[in-house]
Amino acid sequence: MENNELWQSVLAQMQLHISKANFATWFQNTQVVAKENERVVISVPNIFCKEWLSNKYYKLILKTMYDMDNSIKELEFSINPQSTKNNNVQKVDAEKINIEQLKFDEFKVNKDTNLNPRYTFDNFVVGSFNELAHAAGLAVSENPGHIYNPLYIYGGVGLGKTHLIQSIGNKIAEGPHKKKVKYIPSEKLISNIVAAIRSNSMEALKAQLSAIDVLIIDDVQFIAGKVKTQIEFFHVFNSLYEKNKQIILSSDKPPNAIPELEERLRSRFEGGMITDVDSPDYETRLVILKQKLQEKNIQLPEDVLEYMALNVKKNIRELEGALNNLLIYYKTNGNIPNLETAKKLLKSFIFSPFDVANHKKIIEIVAKFYNLEEKNLLNPTRRKEIVKPRQIAMFLLRKELKYSFPAIARKFGGKDHTTVIYAYKKILQEVEENNKLTNEINLIKQRIYSG
Ligand code: ADP
Ligand code: MG
Questions:
Q1: Which of 170, 191, 221, 391 could pair covalently with 423 via S-S, beta carbons 3.0-4.6 A apart?
Q2: Which of 163, 164, 443 to mutate to test the pocket of ligand 1 (most atoms within 8 A of CB)?
Q3: Which residue puts its alpha carbon closest to atom 26 of ligand 1?
């Protein structure tokens, strides 16, 4: 039997066993390319097909072939991206979803700049929750080093800080001025500095960093308490700043809320433009979902999108995760999830405030926010740096969870609930007068409700 003939019979058989869309997805552009004794080699267009076919359909394909030709005992899948020869498999929409894009994005990072090209202004949705940060970012990308320096963007997880600061970097790097852009997550900066100190090559590292035109440091809050990193980074910062080189920073909190940050570095961070990103509202969540679908060239029913926008509120990363869940279902089952299916698939993304916030979590998050050990927060002490966070934790248990004052007192190991009442009233009053505190409490709340 000819290879082609053999494969056509297999395809005909397979169509009886699996759904049309599934068939189109996994058997498009496949063919038998060789038959060597007991083994048949099937070419497939990509790694996903190879994995799917060998994991899910190996036995079925082999059995079908064996029934036609008893000498066939083994299959091999080989990847041949050029195999565009159409074997009359009907194309369906599901095929358009670019799974490679879903999964392998993270690896397409530019070696020189460290930037991921998928982060651009074009696919960054702007709403009232991020418009100031966006406008500042755009201005910086058009005139780096001269407008807002440094540009400091802060906000909770998954709200687009990395996306925005990388978009700025990509726009400048692609611009006509051949600027040297470098994106460095702060963990990486810390480990580079530690390694340079160890190997006595700090000067070389500093020279390297000082030669950059646009330095982007992501999640700069991690340098809290890292004394050596702060000293060295301070020098790099100054040398760039003096040469009108652009510095862009992101953080989960404003500079004045980063604990254990050297005063001189804090004042440098505060010397330019500070702007935040907030959570998107329902309308914007809907726009974001539609934009992501457009990127992936696929459609979902309006009621499914509305359900997602209404219920997946944590942040944009979660929204993307929920969407990908539905797309993977679509890809593997070949049919578009309706509202009922979507509800089932999205269970893990949907929660009520009481599911996510409990006293343990609040205490843990407050402690982390102020770089304290949880036990320090729980035991009575008069140490100044602990008293305030402790009062904030008590305040939040009352405000967010509606715990009674005596119940809160018990959680904090004390018998006297008047201390709790005092803490609650004090914070309530301070919030009215003190913007910095309001800001900190909002950031803590963002974390409590974001996972
Ligand atoms: P953060 O750095 O604040 O934790 P990210 O920038 O990593 O958040 O964003 C999380 C995900 O949400 C990313 O995949 C990003 O592309 C997407 N995202 C965030 N903000 C937007 C936006 N405004 N428009 C479109 N996608 C966004
Ligand atoms: Mg980030």
A1: 391
A2: 163
A3: 124
**Pair 119, 216: CB distance under 8 Å:** no
From the number of C-beta atoms within 10 Å of its C-beta (0-12, 13-18, 19+), residue 189 rates as buried
Using alpha carbons, select from 27, 25, 29, 33 the residue that is nearest to residue 2: 33
**Whether the CB of 320 sits within 6 Å of ligand 1:** yes
Separation of alpha carbons 307 and 289, rounded Å: 11
**Which atom of ligand 1 is found nearest the CA of 218?**
2
pLDDT tens per residue across span 320-333: 989 988 988 888 88
CB of 314 within 6 A of ligand 1: the answer is no
pLDDT level of residue 102 (50, 70, 90 thresholds): very low
State the ligand closest to the CA atom of 186: 2
Spatial CA neighbour of 290 closest among 278, 299, 281: 299
Cβ of 292 less than 6 Å from ligand 1 = no
Which of 123, 154, 165, 316 to mutate to test ligand 1, by most ligand atoms within 8 A of the CB atom? 316
How far is the centre of ligand 2, averaged over its atoms, from the C-alpha of 173 (Å)? Answer: 20
What does the pLDDT look like over 136-178, one tens digit per residue?
999 999 999 999 999 999 999 899 999 999 999 999 999 998 8
Residue 285 CA to ligand 1 center (angstroms) comes to 12
285 lines ligand 1 (CB under 6 A): no
Phi-psi region of 216 (alpha: psi -120 to 50; beta: other; left: phi over 0): beta
Report phi then psi at 154, rounded to 5. -130, 160
**DSSP string computed for 373-435:** -HHHHHS----HHHHHHHHHHHHHHHHHH---HHHHHHHTT-S-THHHHHHHHHHHHHHHH-H
> Using CA atoms, how far apart are residues 42 and 374, in angstroms rounded to an integer?
58
Q: What is the mean pLDDT of residues 336-342?
A: 93
User: Does 162 contact ligand 1 (Cβ within 6 A)?
Assistant: yes
